[in-house]
Amino acid sequence: MANDDQTEGKAKDIGGKIKEEAGDLTNNEDMKREGQADQAEGKVQKGVGDAKDKLTD
Known about the structure:
Radius of gyration: 13 Å
Order of helices and strands: HH
Strand content: under 5%
Number of strands: 0
């Protein structure tokens, strides 16, 4: 079962992809960069959750 960091990280990654695509479609570079940053943050958070999961096994 996924822990909170894994779930929240995945959600940030998906939300970031959506934001990046919206920025791309509207030629909004700031939104596009925010989406990329959200994706990176989500991947890091998911990685922390994965590490926690391995430690508790």
